[in-house]
Amino acid sequence: MRKIISILPKTPKLGQKKRVAAYARVSSGKDAMLHSLSAQISYYSNFIQSHKDWDYVGVYADEAKTGTKESREGFQKLISDCHAGKIDMVITKSISRFARNTVTLLETVRELKSLGVDVLFEEQNIHTMSSDGELMMSILASYAQEESRSASENQKWRVKRNFEDGKPWSSKIFGYRYDSGKFIIIPEEAETVRRIYDDYLSGLGVTAIAKALSEENVLTRSKHSSWNKSSVEAILKNYNYTGNLLLQKTYSENHITKRRCVNHGEMPQYHAESTHEPIISLDIFYAAQAERERRAKKYKCKQAPRKTYPFTGLLTCNNCGKHYRRKTTKAGIVWICSTFNSLGKSQCASKQIPETTLMEIASEFDDIKNIVVCDDNWLIFHLADGNEIQRQWQDRSRHESWTDEMKEKARQKALERGKSDA
Predict the structure, then answer these.
(1) If 0-12 CB within 10 Å is exposed, 13-18 middle and 19+ buried, where does residue 422 land?
(2) Distance CA 46, CA 64 (A)
């Protein structure tokens, strides 16, 4: 008798979906460019998710950043996630969006290639994992780099011609508005400029001036009511308030890094006299510069070498974004937000943290990259391996916060009260 066995078909194995991310960048913070960046993010999100055999990882983006690798946080996060094995392919618009420097481009692509990560440049239709991908990239990246250099040289030529005609590079100066090629005084802002010079020459420090302006809700150039030391110092050393212009005080290092450098004579400078109505006189300006120099010499002698501690540069305030600094108080050593310490609770309602508490919690972790200090005593630890761990610390009791010296003073007062009552 013939025996027939039914053999069921094997269930085909489902192929693993390709994990795909995108990278987008614009090199200007202008509204039009930021709108372009938003459009790119939306486009790539929809494009990747429309492929059934792709898994959408995300869109990594940088705004108002140059093409240098080190200056782009989104780009660095993308590379980090590639190393972590989270991405199989990266899509980007063009080679110039990825890098302007041929060497940097090839180094990065080879780095990703060694991890098995493909990069697709849409405009050039190049896959880096293909056999001729690197050759094509090398040629096109060199072209993009030369195009960037040419554009930079053209821009420098235009700026130089403007300087020679007495026209400023930037028209944004607190106290003025720029209209039809001329600086027009804004009365209320000009009054703030005069007040800063008067207060400084009467003996107030820049931190005290910034604190007073913030408490009175005086608006800055960006229409915020939070002043700081650097914003006051910038006004005190701005020669433009005298009605004259000193042009090309800084210059761009090169077309790749685009780093701004102070001009110490490497480039020509241009002095344009009586270009606009002054807010302060030359005498007041030079008096302020002499006072700045006098104070710098006075306090420079007293400054001790800056010390660093285990938490220096690690603690960031979640409220204002400033770093915490170490401070010795009557209750012991604490770490305190620099904004709160300089400008008070009205500008940043953060809490100081006892150093002993920080040491105890931080001892749980190795390779701490950053600690974000949040409200309600929460700390977010960002570790070098990419993990984020939250911990909540407890306030010290009144008894714990007392030092031996404070306890001794309290005992002495109690004894004195007892004698007087007797």
Answers:
(1) exposed
(2) 24
Q: pLDDT of 235-293, one tens digit each?
A: 999 988 998 887 766 656 555 555 666 766 666 777 778 888 999 999 999 999 999 99
Burial class (CB in 10 A: 0-12, 13-18, 19+), 254: exposed
User: What does the angle CA 7 – CA 12 – CA 13 come to, to the nearest 5 degrees?
Assistant: 135
Which tokens hold the place of 193? 């400029």
Tokens of 215: 């408490």
Question: Token pair for residue 234?
Answer: 């910038």
Q: 10 pairs with which residues across the strands?
A: none
Tokens encoding 357 = 């508490």
- First-to-final CA distance of the chain: 122
Neighbouring C-beta atoms of residue 375, cutoff 10 Å: 10
Token pair in block for residue 382:
């960002």
